[in-house]
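User: For my dataset I need records formatted as: sequence, then structure tokens, nothing else. Please produce one.
Assistant:
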Amino acid sequence: MQKPDPASIPTAPGVYLYKDTRGRVIYVGKARVLRRRVLSYFRSEGLPAKTRAMLSHAASLDYLTTTTEKEALLLEASLIKKHRPHYNIVLRDDKQYVLFRCNPRHPFPRLEIVRQARRDGARYFGPFTSALAARETWKLLHRAFALRRCTDRAMKNRVRPCLYHFMGQCPAPCMGLVTPQEYNVNVRQVCDLLEGRSAELLHHLRTGMEAAAEALEFERAALLRDQIRAVERTVERQAAVLPGGGDMDALGLAPGERGLALALVFVRNGAVTDGRAFYWPGLSFEDAPELLWSFLAQYYSQVTPPPRVLLPWLPPDLETDPALDAAPPTDAEHVSAADQAARSAPDAPPSGPGSRADAPPAAPSAPPASAIFPTVVSAAAATAAASPEALPRPALGERELLEQTLGDRRNGPVRLVAPQNADDNRLVDLAQGNAREEAHRQERGGAQDILTRLGAALHLPGPPHRLECVDVSHTGGKQTRVGLVVFEGGRPERGQYRNYAMPDSGDDYATLHAWVSRRLESGPPWPDLLLIDGGRGQLHTVQRALREAGHEALFPLAAIAKARDEAGHADRRAGNVADRIFTPDRVNPLPLREGSPELLFLQNVRDTAHRFVIGRHRRARRGAALSGELMRLPGIGPATARLLWDHFGSVEAMRAASLEDLRRLPGIGPAKAALLLQKLAALQ
């Protein structure tokens, strides 16, 4: 790529996007001063190999200016998540983790499992990376402490206690069988347990059990005994690491033979509650500073950060480049030597009794920023740029900028710190041990090897990191749906699944042909491989639709079809592993061995797409059936039927609705609500 005209580059903070010849974003970066940052990529020497490779594929450059550096940081994280650029360090697994939520403002709070914390006054506990483990804990807590499980709407519409009440696991607040004061005793005990105050809770429960036994209240004593056992089973999984308590996340890095691993340990109320590990192939330890800053910005854009985040060391500011500072300034970029010296001074390492003595070889002095990507001095160092009015205020360092941004998300202060004492050292050691295990597990085998073998088997240009699979479902041509599932790095990305409502048609070929235009309208990111559930006919239909749209070579195609039995029909027997894979340039299917890892992986992707689209089709069919049932009643048209279905979700809930419930619906007045109540009461 040719060096752009400096006058065409703004001097404000913002984000720059490098694109290839096909218009795909291949790198996203932020800058305090866009002109200085972009021009640093075109130095005559000193560019890392990674940067030179990116520039060799770049064909154009776009800019998005912001008013502050904080806005640029948030915009960079959002664009990386959207475009998944090839040359960025991308957090592939950025799903929302499981949290427990309890709303103390409700007279009868409910402990529920959610995926996102909101600023709604409720209390949140977690996170838990394993939804299965969280649900087991949730069930255990409900068996030990009687709390309601039903939603607010179901509780309001109940006319008799639920089954859990008769099992002794719900005090039936819906029927007024318990007062809010009595109910909230269990709520406080559950919150104490989830906050880590298990010792006080166990002491209170044991005292109550002994008192009940002495008073010959054996049923109450047995209930308290079961609660003690449940608490002990819950806390025995947690390892106490901070005697004084406290919440923090600890990060550890470990290089492998072919990549770099990062582990995250969650500490809540002084105990390790969970952890998570990530792996990036192709990175080395010299990429650690960029990895740490990029990970923090991307990960905590979706997860509420704790008040303290412990890093193995404080990386240098990526926009403080000693190599650039040493170079003579251009006419438009005069930098004071004193300002440069102040900005380029590295952070002092922690000292004293709490300093790390057993850190990894690279931890005491982090890799130089110039080894990662070309960087520039801060905006405060540029005292005479082409637009001086754009540079009046001192710039924030990378650490200060992240702390402010994360603090805004948490609605409280957040500190990014290096280890300060022996407890911090133990946490970092724990995180680094998990990172080493993750690097070993990933390099010993796994999804990346399967993708490499799959790319070779299908004669693709490289491993299909992003794989999309499409399937069609309908019943007699009605409620036709096309489902699209996405796998990235060999793992499903459920947040990117898409359900397309298509015109009713029993012709799968016509539906697929029409769907292609819908997919092209959605735009990038484009898949490295589009897998179609079907045979040669479906494959040629999609290929023809792409050719007619002028995008025949946009991405590779393949189709997966059931093997044939002795009679020449599709073999749909359970356990069949002899599916056939078709590609556009072959008449016969690919010679993939039955039960091979590549074929099993494609079958898993196809089955995932099939389950997804079947579920969406059945949901649409149920909605149509319910709407049809409602529309049989005089005075209820499609709009009202849709409104009732969206709000209540079932006939039983509609029949149980009160007049006030119906009046609260948008567009429903008192007269229409009374008419609906009468008609719904007669609905069988």
